[in-house]
Amino acid sequence: THTLNIIGGGMAGSEAAWQAANAGINVVIHEMRPKVATFAHRTGNLGEMVCSNSFRSDDSEQNAVGLLHWEMRAAGGLIMEMANKHKIPAGGALAVDRDPFAESVTAALKAHPNVSVSYEEITELPTDGLWIVATGPLTSGNLATAIQKQTGAEALAFFDAIAPIIYHESINMDVAWMQSRYDKGETVEEQTAYLNCPMTKDQYEAFIDALLAAEKTEFKEGETAGYFDGCLPIEVMAERGRETLRWGPMKPVGLTNSHDPETKAHAVVQLRRDNALGTLYNIVGFQTKMKYGAQKTVLQMIPGLEDAEFARLGGIHRNTFINSPTLLDHEMRLRSQPNLRFAGQITGVEGYVESAAMGLLAGRMAVAELTGQTLDPVPHTTAMGALVTHITGGADAKTFQPMNVNFGLFPPLEGVKSGRRGRKERYKGYTDRAKIDWQAWLSQQEQPAA
Ligand code: FAD
């Protein structure tokens, strides 16, 4: 019989284990808790939710994370099954009673004849056998060091400093223009790679005031601030002096506003393409610890971004993750050591649902590998496929930051209205297409009864 070893029994590891065990594979989960703690987990349960008790929107027709729920349910996912069981009222969101939820994930796995749990910290990367590394954002220091040794120091991050990401279609191009600073680059595409938003002196001063006044989140105890010297939050830069941003990420030099070439901007906010499709743009150098509500209000003061819609807001968190676009193949195997598959937040997805989803995929891919089956690539048109395509190739490796699932990661639909007015129809189109394609992908692997 075949054995699959999984390091970490969190969202991703639990789901991977369930998928493989149900396909008849022997699974060993290696979990360091409760022997070794993290600063955020409180129990020794598998599938513990470390912070909020919500799996976010459950709307599988208009919301990308809701679609991910649907896809996981269609695949017999454990996390969704137990979430349904312990659901508590939360409007359109799927929120759960957290302790019974994690207890039932633990109980289901422990009761499964193909699963065993070994409570130990893994400190080295195993060289033999097939493994899934699903140790999450709080991967233990020893293992993180081992991963760093294998992948190179540059390829493993301990913090993410996220600049907000905006849907291109929500940016006002009557105000913003495309140009790289000093028109740098060989090709026209490179010379116009950035999107620029100009500010007058008054607008800049008002922006700085709002930034200083905005509500910020603090680092949690044990999260150790002071790591982020190279990527100061914009509000910290503003605190250091009102002109600091104008000499930093907002410097107005080397740029000419194509809508108004005569007027020199006092400051310029630059956005850079964030994905190959060109549907998402990140605000360059704008990592921030402003609270989400404040962030939207402040950033919408930037001319051209008045109606900006955010694919994700900025933040700075303790988060161990690898540079997946350079390190992993399309089946999430480490290129330099293919007996290791990575899954969950450590691959650079963000969120409980996304982490569990990547665990589900990794589990199924491992099953195929152990049983000598070749799987088709996960369709890019599904929420699962959009995420895995993003982390293993679609994202820019140089600026790779953890990502939530969102419709900006999906290939555009043909014949559907663009812009805000067609949004409802477009999202329905994305989700209809995804459901068909996901079912087709799943049907390759016939699951024997558990
Ligand atoms: P985890 O669920 O953390 O599972 C990893 C497991 O690996 C853990 O059980 C850990 O004990 C174990 N482990 C680590 N190292 C080793 C080792 N060397 N040997 C053996 N076992 C090991 N997402 C949301 O959607 N909503 C939130 O509110 C939210 N809040 C967060 C708050 C914090 C403080 C953090 C750090 C993250 C938060 N996240 C949140 C992000 C993320 O979605 C969750 O952390 C999610 O649990 C990630 O799933 P995972 O399976 O990748 O990792």
Task: Walk me through what this model shows.
The two termini are 16 Å apart. This protein has helices at residues 11-22, 64-74, 78-85, 98-111, 141-151, 188-191, 201-213, 234-240, 244-247, 292-299, 324-327, 352-370, 383-394, 423-442, and strands at 3-7, 26-31, 54-57, 87-88, 93-96, 115-119, 130-133, 156-162, 165-167, 177-178, 194-199, 267-273, 280-283, 310-312, 315-322, 333-334, 337-342. The protein is α+β, with helices and mostly antiparallel strands. The strands form four sheets. Strands 6-2-1-7-17-16 form a six-stranded mixed sheet. The relative contact order is 0.17. Helix content is 33%, strand content 17%. Strand 16 and strand 17 form a beta hairpin. It is globular and about 75 Å long. It contains 14 helices and 17 strands. Helix 1 runs parallel beside helix 12, helix 2 (64-74) packs parallel to helix 14 and helix 3 packs across helix 4. The structure holds flavin-adenine dinucleotide (FAD).
> Judging from the principal axes of the Cα atoms, what is the shape?
globular
Low-confidence stretches: none
Terminal CA distance: 16 Å
Strand line-up in the sheet with most strands: 6-2-1-7-17-16
The number of strands is 17
Would you tell me the structural class of the helices and strands? alpha+beta
**In percent terms, what proportion of residues is strand?**
15-25%
Helix content: 25-40%
Q: Major sheet: size, sense and barrel closure?
A: 6 strands, mixed
Mean pLDDT: 92
Name every ligand kind in the structure.
Answer: flavin-adenine dinucleotide
Radius of gyration: 22 Å
State the helix count.
14
